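Contributing: when you submit paired examples, paste them exactly as shown. First protein:
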Amino acid sequence: FTMFLSLYANELDYKSVMEKIGKEGMVLELGASTCKACKEMKIVIDELKKTNTTLPVHIVDIRENRDAIERFKIQMIPTQVVLDKSGKEVYRHIGGLSSEEMLRLVEISKK
C-alpha cells in the first residue's frame, strides 16, 4: 500500500502535468490511491507505459490535488478526461477501462 501511494502522482507531478495542458494532447486519469478501481487503472497504465514510456496518460490523485476536483468537475472516480492539444476537453469516461480502451482515449487526444 505504501509503495502504491509513493507511485501515485504527487504535487510536483500534478503541477508539471498542468503546465503541459494546451501544449499537448493527453489523458488525465483522475482518482485516488484509496479507490480500488483507481488502483486497477494505475496497473493498466503502468503496464501500457512499460511498452511506451512517453504515453500521454497522467494520473492525478484528487485527494492530494483537491483543486483538480473543481477544475475537471469530478463527480465520481475513476474519471478519465481526454484533452486535445489546445487543452480542450474532447471526451470523458467514468469508471475502469481496459488497456485497449485506454489506448483509444490516447488516440482521441491526438486529433
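Second protein:
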Amino acid sequence: NREDFLDRYEQDVDLAREMLEDCLSDGPDSLHQVLLAVSQRDESVEALAHRLKGPCAYVGAEQLRDLSTRIMTAASQGRWKQADELAQALSGAWEAFLLATQSWSSGREE
C-alpha cells in the first residue's frame, strides 16, 4: 500500500515518486524482454527476469517480484511450460500494477 511504500523512503514523497517513475519507465521494456526470452526458450531469461525483479522489489511490487523470481527458477530448471504460465501471469500483474500506481505516480494523489 501507499504508506508502506512511503515508509521504504522515510516518507520522502519525491524520492518515492522518482523510484516508482523509474520502475514504470523501464518496466515495459524489461517485461517485453522477459516475455520474448521465455517464448524463445532463451537462456538469458534468468538475467532478464532478475533485471525486472530489482526495481519491482524497490517499489514494493511483491507480486511482480515473486513472479520474476519464479520465472528465473523455472527457466533455470528447464521447466518452460511453467515459465510460459508464469510469464502470462507476470504480464497480467504488470497491467494491474500500472492501474494501481497510475494516479499516484502522476502526482494527482498526495
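If you have annotations for the second protein, write them as plain sentences, like these:
The chain has a mean pLDDT of 91.
The first helix runs from residue 2 to 8.
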